[in-house]
Amino acid sequence: MRNYVLKGNICYSKSSKELCIVENGYVVCKDGRSAGVYETLPEIYEALPCYNYEDKIVIPGLVDLHVHAPQYSFRGLGMDLELIEWLNTHTFVEEAKYADLEYAKKAYDIFVEDLIDSATTRACIFGTIHTDATLLLMEKLENAGIVAYVGKVNMDRNSPQYLCEESAEKSAQDTQKWLVDSQRFQYVKPILTPRFTPSCTDELFERLSELQKKYHLPVQSHLSENLGEIDWVKELCQGTQFYGESYHQYGMFGNACPTIMAHCVHSGEAEIEMMRKQQVFVAHCPESNANLASGVAPVKTYLEKGMKVGLGTDIAAGSSLSLFRAMASAVQCSKLRWRLYDQSVAPLTVEEVFYLATKGGGEFFGKAGSFEEGYEFDAVVMDDTSIRHPQSLGAKERLERLIYLAEDHHIAAKFISGRVIFREK
Ligand code: GUN
Ligand code: FE
User: Fold this and answer.
1) Is 225 in the pocket of ligand 1 (CB under 6 A)?
2) Distance from the CA of 199 to the center of ligand 2, in angstroms?
3) What digits encode the pLDDT tens for the residues 12-23?
């Protein structure tokens, strides 16, 4: 049933500067898309069923542009290391376990169950190199009704022997097979996922580039996260001017190839300009960047340049699956960046991070992440009655408190593309 009305305090972004709030308002779902937000319900919609959420807060579903599903099992561990050491000590060891489908089933059940309970309605997800485990993850997400891009990871160099694909050819063959097998899903789509330049040979990039063109696939990867990583890429790719070129030279950096690059903490001017021109999406992962001491990306600059930006939790470098937590971290990290490092880039506002977690990231999925007319109807109803306060607050203040305090514990209902995911917890 995809035609109905939600009543409550409706909050959504039109842009990074414009947060719209209609207290005691209505948002209409028609054929799985928003038919607009109203102070008074137009007569033509009066006959539709109305879910009355009274004084609760109704927001668009949140979008996680960057999360590693297999890493959910070790979140909160090894947070004293930087990127490369952390990958070698914890990450690769854990990801290797997904060769065993029994382990993958247990671990992905936990990940998907927690994702269902969260405020996240759409996500771009890394799996592992294993095709069967990745298909299993896709099936679980599909059954849960979550809209997602999921990637079988490619890595054929600089990886431990137990997590290194045998050759570029074998990696491409497995990827092709996985692409064909994943055509059966409706809500979950494949995305090419070369892990990052250090773990992919030129030959692998060439083969993935062929698959990208053949199947018109989007791409996700990592970019300019850590200073040591950037030096390493310089050594590996001697002909390139900057890290982003190592993807661009294979046509996997935006424009005809929709692309998400996680982090972009240390991107230089030329890289930033190329991302802007090519409309590459930046997945800003503030908690991860703090945990691995990577740094703080200049997100405000990216927004001011009109670039595409959303938020990522980057589990398990980020410890929390909650995009509320990611929003709060984004504000906090931007303030430290401003205070300690660069006063020419102002801290992020609540309006901006709410936009990033909804419409900013949602744009990767087309019209998603807002209640403006024609947008996919993804909605989350927040019940903040247990976040007690001694005075009466307006909807904007309540939304702000939810961003800082909710951690996905106060969700009363969740809808994706008009489908009811749950209506009572
Ligand atoms: N770069 C390459 N792989 C990874 C990963 O799994 N997590 C993070 N944060 N960065 C990476
Ligand atoms: Fe990552």
Assistant:
1) yes
2) 13
3) 999 999 999 999
